[in-house]
Amino acid sequence: MEGPLKDVRVLDLSRVLAGPWAGQTLADLGAEVIKVERPGAGDDTRGWGPPFLADGDGNPTSDAAYFLAANRGKQSVTIDFTRPEGQELVRQLAASCDIVLENFKVDGLAQYGLDYQSLKAVNPAIIYCSITGFGQTGPYRQLAGYDFLIQGMGGLMSVTGEPDGAPGGGPMKVGVAIVDIFTGMYATTAVLAALVHRERTGVGQHIDLALLDVQVATLANQATNYLVSGRSPGRLGNSHPNIVPYQAFATSDSHIILAVGNDEQFRKFCGVAGVPHLAADERFAANQGRVRNREALIPELSALFRSRSKAAWIEELGKAGVPCGPINNLEEVFADPQVQARSMCQTVQHSAAGAIPLVGTPMKFSETPGGSRQAPPLLGEHTSSVLERLLGLDDGRMAALREAKVI
C-alpha cells in the first residue's frame, strides 16, 4: 500500500548513519529515495562488518548488517561526482527531486557545485538538508563530528553510567549511535515541516542540522534540571534523577526493572512486596521524599528483590498494575509476542540473498500504512533504471559513462 509521502522524491547524498536514517524514514513513509554512492565503494557502512549478509549459498556478501540497518527502501545509483560529468548528473537528478539529504563537512559539496545555492539555481523549490557535527555556523563549524565524540561533548556521557567510585563507575556511551539516530529523526521532522511550508508558499529552503545541537536538545529533563538548579546532574547508573524507585534490581535469578511513576504505584508495590509500612513512612510516602531519601530506601528494596525470582516479581507486580519488566537480550526481544504482533521484524526479498529479516517501521498509519517492503539495495543496483527514467539516458550514453568510470 502507498505511504503518505507518495510522489515525494528524495536525493540522498549522505552516508554512514544520521543522513541515511533520515532517508530510510522517508522511504518508510512512502517517498522515493535515490541513494547516490561512490562507484566501486559505496557507503562506508557497506564494509562495517562482520557480520555481513550471506547470499543464497551461505557465502558472505559485500554488505554489512550495519548498512542494512539504515538503507531499506532506497534505490542505489553510483555516480562519481568528483568528476564534472558526475556533478552534472547529480544536478539533473536534483532538478527532479523535492528533498536533498547530505552530511558532508561544511562547504564540502560547494567545490563540486552541489551545495544548496548551486542546486537551488536548478531547482528553486528544493528542500536541502545539511547534517554536520557542529552546524554551518560557530567556531567548531569546520570540525568533523562523530556520534561517540558528541555523546561526550554534549553531556550525555556525564549522566550515563555508574557513579564515580561505584563498581564499574565512570562515563559510558549509549549502546547504539543514539545521536546519529536522533539527528536522522530531527532531519525527517524538519524536511516534512519544510514540505508543508513549500505547499503554502512554493518556496524551498536550507535546513542546518548539527549533531551537537541535537545532543543538547535531547538531554531533555537532565538539561532542564541543570538550568533550573544550576547544578550539573551526575551519573546514577540505572536510577532516575527525578523518580524513585525507577531502576533495575537484581532478583534471585536475574534482573528486573521497576518503574514506579507515582505514589499510588509505590503503595501497590509495597503491598506486593509485603512492606506496607514503607508506603506509610513519611520519608517515602511521596516521590519528593523518596528522591531525597533514596540512599535509605534503595538498599531495603534491593534486599527484597533478591528474595524472589524475576518471573515471580513480574507476574505479581503485573497483576497489581505496577510497571515492571525484564531486561531482554535481542533474541528475547524478537521472540516477544508483543514485538511480533507489531510486525517489528519483517521479511523482504534481497537481490543477492533472497528472503532476509529486517527491523520493521514503528510508524503505523490507519489510511496510508507505509513501511517499505524493499530491501536495502546492492551497490549501483538501480543506476541504469533511474538514469533512464529520470534523465532519459540511453544505453549508449550510459555505456560511455561507465567506460569513463563516472557511473
Your description of this structure?
By secondary structure, the protein is of the alpha/beta class. Helices cover 38% and strands 15% of the residues. The chain has 17 helices and 13 strands. Helix 1 (18-28) crosses helix 6 and helix 6 packs across helix 7. The chain is elongated and about 85 Å long. The mean pLDDT is 95.
Physical arrangement of strands within the biggest beta sheet: 5-2-1-6-7-8
**Beta-strand content estimate:** 15-25%
- Total number of helical segments? 17
CATH T-level fold name of the largest domain: Rossmann fold
Please state the CA-atom Rg, rounded to the nearest Å. 25 Å
Low-confidence stretches: none
Oligomeric composition of the shown chains = single chain
Class inferred from helices and paired strands: alpha/beta
**What is the domain tally?**
2
Average pLDDT: 95
Task: Please report the first level of CATH classification, the CATH class of the largest domain.
Answer: Alpha Beta
Taking the alpha carbons of the first and last residues, their distance comes to 32 Å
Write the element-wise H/E pattern from the N-terminal end onward. Answer: EHEEEHEHEHEHHEHHEEHHHHHEHHEEHH
Beta strands, count: 13
In CATH terms, the superfamily of the largest domain is Crotonobetainyl-coa:carnitine coa-transferase, domain 1
Architecture per CATH nomenclature, i.e. the level-2 architecture of the largest domain: 3-Layer(aba) Sandwich
Q: Mind summarizing the main beta sheet? A: 6 strands, parallel
Helix content: 25-40%
Shape: elongated
